[in-house]
């Protein structure tokens, strides 16, 4: 059985507040020929793990991948919208792209969201 109390304790004690940036559907403007996407930011608690930094030797470009547990509730108490693979997580000046979303449910109720991130 899933224990939401332990998960919520982990997020509150060891997580950090991050910004979930959801990007709206692409809108094409036929007059300007530009595709635009409008961002909407949400504040939510997250816990990062499995940080795998990588670096390209000759260009000194650092990148990496990591995993993240996202709370099912935003910091204001409302439900966290389900992220898409085109959305982003922003924290401490870093912007990471979401590459995989795995919601964890128990008895039909969203408990948390597991994310795969890439910088």
How would you sum up this structure in a few lines?
By secondary structure, this protein is mainly beta.
Describe the structure.
The chain is mainly β. 9% of the residues lie in helices and 61% in strands. A six-stranded antiparallel barrel has the order 1-4-5-8-7-6. It has a two-stranded antiparallel sheet with strand order 2-3. A hairpin with a 4-residue loop joins β4 (39-56) and β5.
Tell me the overall shape.
Answer: globular
**How would you state the average pLDDT, rounded?**
85
Distance between the termini: 34 Å
From the alpha carbons, calculate the radius of gyration and give it in angstroms.
Answer: 16 Å
Spans of at least 5 consecutive residues with low confidence:
none
What fraction, in percent, of the residue positions are helical? under 10%
> Main sheet, how many strands, which sense, barrel?
6 strands, antiparallel, barrel
- Strand/helix succession: HEEEEEEEE
Proportion of residues in β-strands = over 45%
Question: Which characteristics define this entry?
Answer:
mainly beta, six-stranded antiparallel β-barrel, 1 helix, 119 residues, 8 strands
């Amino acid at each position: 059985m899933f224990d939401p109390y332990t998960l919520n304790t982990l997020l509150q004690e060891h997580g950090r507040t991050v910004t979930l940036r959801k990007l709206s559907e692409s809108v094409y403007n036929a007059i300007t020929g530009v595709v635009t996407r409008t961002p909407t930011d949400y504040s939510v608690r997250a816990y990062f793990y499995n940080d795998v930094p990588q670096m390209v030797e000759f260009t000194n470009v650092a990148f990496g991948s990591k995993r993240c547990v996202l709370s099912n509730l935003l910091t204001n108490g409302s439900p966290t919208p389900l992220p898409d693979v085109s959305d982003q997580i922003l924290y401490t000046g870093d912007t990471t792209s979401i590459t995989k979303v795995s919601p964890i449910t128990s008895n039909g109720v969203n408990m948390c969201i597991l994310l795969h991130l890439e910088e």
